[in-house]
Amino acid sequence: MPLLPESLPETIFKDDGTRLDGRKFNELRDLHIEVGVLKNADGSALVCHGKNRIIAGAYGPREVHPRHLAKSDTGILQISYRMATFSVGERKSPVPGRREKEISMVVGKAIEPVLFLEQYPNTTIDVFITVLTADGGTRCASVTAAACAIADMGIPMKDLVAGVAVGKIANRIILDVSDKEDKWEKGGATDMPVAVMVNQKQYSLLQLDGSITVEQFEEMLDLVFEGGKLVYEKQKEALRRKYSTEDVGR
Amino acid sequence: MDLSISKKISSLERDYILDLLEKGTRVDGRGLLEYREIKIDAGHILKSEGSARVFIGDTEIDVGVKYDLGTPYPDSPDEGVITCMAEFVPSASPMFESGPPREDAIELARVVDRGIRHSNLIDKKKLCVVPGKEVFILFVDIYYMDHNGNGIDTASLAAISALKSVQLPKLEQKVINEQTFQAPTGETYPLDIDDYPVTITFSKIDNHMIVDPNLIEELIAEARVSFCLNKNGQITSIQKNGKGTFSAEELVKAAKNARDLAPMLQQKVKEYTRDLTGM
Question: What's chain B's average pLDDT?
Answer without folding.
Answer: 91
